[in-house]
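Residues determine shape. Take a concrete instance:
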Amino acid sequence: MASGNKFFLQIFVFLTLATTALSLSPYFYNNVCPQALPTIKKIVQAAVYQERRMGASLLRLHFHDCFVNGCDGSLLLDSTTTIDSEKNAGPNVNSARGFEVIDQIKAEVDKVCGRPVVSCADILAVAARDSVVALGGPSWKVRLGRRDSTTASKDLANTVLPSPFMDLPALINNFKNQGLNQRDLVALSGGHTIGLAQCLTFRNRTYTAKNIDPAFAKERRATCPRVGGDSNLAPLDPTPARFDTSYFQNLVKKRGLLISDQALFDGGSTDDLVKIYSSNPQAFWEDFAKSMIKMGNIKPLTGTQGQIRVNCRKVNW
């Protein structure tokens, strides 16, 4: 009887989440503020033009927001006496960036809309899409209508955000806990086709891994010493400012930068998909877009839940 109740509870939770996600719509702002999305796109394009790396940073903000209590803008909240900011969690501190661009977008969008009608959570979702497009990647229709949280959780961020040191079983389980499957894992990991990583995240692999191309390891050691230089940067793939399939081609050559990158191609269940993406850009683009939409549907606040923040860095009261 107890197991039966547990089963029905799981079904209820699934249906509740599915219904909530379905309440999002690409056309949410068409009537209330038709200039919202063009305004976001304009600012993102300018920011990425000024600094190509910013595209990867904005994409990462959306990812790190969604994995912690859903896509609710909680990552953007600064610390207060009652809020322990997720910005200070291990995976975010001294690495999450682009908050000033989000502030700029929020100010300009509220100006063209005449009032705060676009949530910070939606701004993150649209900015992520526009960043990928600005770097030559695919586009997709972002589902909109999320509202902003009034809380954040540094502890949860430390617990649920995937680590660059995870092996494949840990990665699969981590994504499964978010309702994402192995195809989502591989496709979304392809976001590492843009951007840079700090030495402290790849030092161990560079010096101790067996499944690494020796020439690549030597190249990375040149800028990542055994001691010191933790914040030294290296590209996640050979073309860090272009959204392409170089990331997957690198994995096939055992030139993945992070342990969690190479784990996707190391004799496991995701090898075949990595091979497909490495030689078929269209397949990668299509799956990446689908998985981004799916990730954007993780536990959004809708309707009267949460609020529309006036300032993305703090709650309205």
Remarks:
- The longest strand covers residues 196-198.
- The beta strands are 196-198, 233-235.
- Residues 180 and 242 are 25 Å apart (CA to CA).
